[in-house]
Design goal:
By secondary structure, this protein is mainly beta. It has one domain: outer membrane lipoprotein receptor (LolB), chain A, CATH 2.50.20. The protein is built from four helices and 13 strands. Strands 1, 2, 3, 4, 5, 6, 7, 8, 9, 10, 11, 12 and 13 form a 13-stranded antiparallel β-sheet that branches. β8 and β9 form a beta hairpin.
Length: 260
C-alpha cells in the first residue's frame, strides 16, 4: 500500500460551464492523461484524509444572518431611514451557514463502486471549539441519487465510469475558456460530465440532483493543484458547489492508495 501526502493550496473557484456542444472526439483519448495520473487501471481503493470547511442550509428553513452584518448593525441601532446618509444597505443574506471540517476521511472502493465518508465538525474555526461526534456515511450502488452522486463526483470513479461506458465528448466554454467535456449516463439515466482543460487535466465533474425543496441542484466538484507524489497524481484542493453556492472545501492532507 503506497502512502502519499502533501500540503494543499486554496485556489480560485471556477465558474459554471455554459451549454454543451457536441463534437466527435474519443473519450479514451481525452481522459487518457488523467487516467494515467490517477492510475485508474491499477488502483482498487483509495483513502483520502482532509480538513476544510462546509456550508449547510439552515435546517430551520430560515436564512442565517452573520453577526456584524450591515443588516444586524441597522437592527441593533434601530430603524434607519433609507434616505439618511447613515443608512447602510444590508447585503444579500448568505444561503448557507459555515462549519469547520476538523477531519474528513473518505474511502473509495472502485471494485464495489462504493464510497464511505467519516467526518468530524466544529461550529467555528476556533481551536477550542466543541467538536461533533464522528458521522459516518456509506454510499453503495443501492443509495439514492441524492447521496449516490457523491461517488461519481470523485476523479477515479468518474474516469473509470467514462472509460467503461459509452461516453460522448463535446466542448463547453466557461469564462472565455473552452473545455473538452466527457459525458455519460449512469444509475438509471443520470448524466455526469467531466471537464478537461488544455493541459489534459480533469478540472471538474458536474451532475444534477433533486433538492429537498423539490427543485434541482446543479452540483459541481472542482479539482485544483494536481500534485505528483510518488506514482499517483491527485488534486490537493477539492471544492463542491451546489447551484453556485459553496457546499464544501477540502484540503487534502494524505492519500493512501491500494493497487492491484
Amino acid at each position: 500500500m503506497a502512502k502519499i501526502a502533501w500540503q494543499g493550496l486554496t485556489l480560485p473557484i471556477l465558474l459554471l460551464a455554459l451549454p454543451f456542444a457536441a463534437s466527435a472526439q474519443d473519450a479514451a483519448k481525452v481522459l487518457g492523461p488523467t487516467a494515467d495520473a490517477l492510475r485508474v487501471g491499477e488502483v482498487e481503493s483509495l483513502t483520502l484524509t482532509a480538513s476544510g470547511s462546509g456550508y449547510a442550509r439552515d435546517s430551520s428553513g430560515e436564512t442565517p444572518q452573520p453577526a456584524g452584518s450591515a443588516a444586524a448593525t441597522n437592527a441593533a441601532a434601530g430603524t434607519v431611514d433609507p434616505g439618511s446618509p447613515l443608512f447602510v444597505p444590508p447585503p444579500p443574506p448568505p444561503e448557507r451557514s459555515y462549519f469547520r471540517i476538523v477531519s474528513h476521511v473518505q474511502t473509495l472502493d472502485l471494485d464495489a463502486e462504493s464510497l464511505s465518508i467519516e467526518q468530524v465538525r466544529a461550529a467555528t474555526s476556533a481551536p477550542d471549539a466543541e467538536r461533533s461526534a464522528p458521522s459516518a456515511t456509506t454510499i453503495d450502488s443501492s443509495a439514492d441519487w441524492s447521496l449516490r452522486h457523491r461517488y461519481w463526483l470523485t476523479p477515479h470513479a468518474f474516469v473509470a465510469g467514462a472509460l467503461a461506458g459509452n461516453a460522448s465528448v463535446g466542448t463547453e466554454t466557461a469564462s472565455g475558456v473552452e473545455y473538452r467535456v466527457v459525458s455519460f449516463t449512469i444509475d438509471g439515466g443520470r448524466e455526469v460530465r467531466g471537464y478537461v482543460d488544455s493541459e489534459d487535466r480533469l478540472v471538474r465533474v458536474r451532475t444534477t440532483v433533486e433538492s429537498p425543496d423539490g427543485g434541482t441542484l446543479d452540483v459541481i466538484e472542482s479539482f485544483f493543484d494536481w500534485s505528483d507524489q510518488g506514482e499517483l497524481t491527485y488534486p490537493s484542493t477539492l471544492i463542491r458547489k451546489e447551484n453556485g453556492e459553496l457546499a464544501e472545501v477540502l484540503i487534502v492532507q494524505e492519500i493512501d492508495a491500494a493497487s492491484s
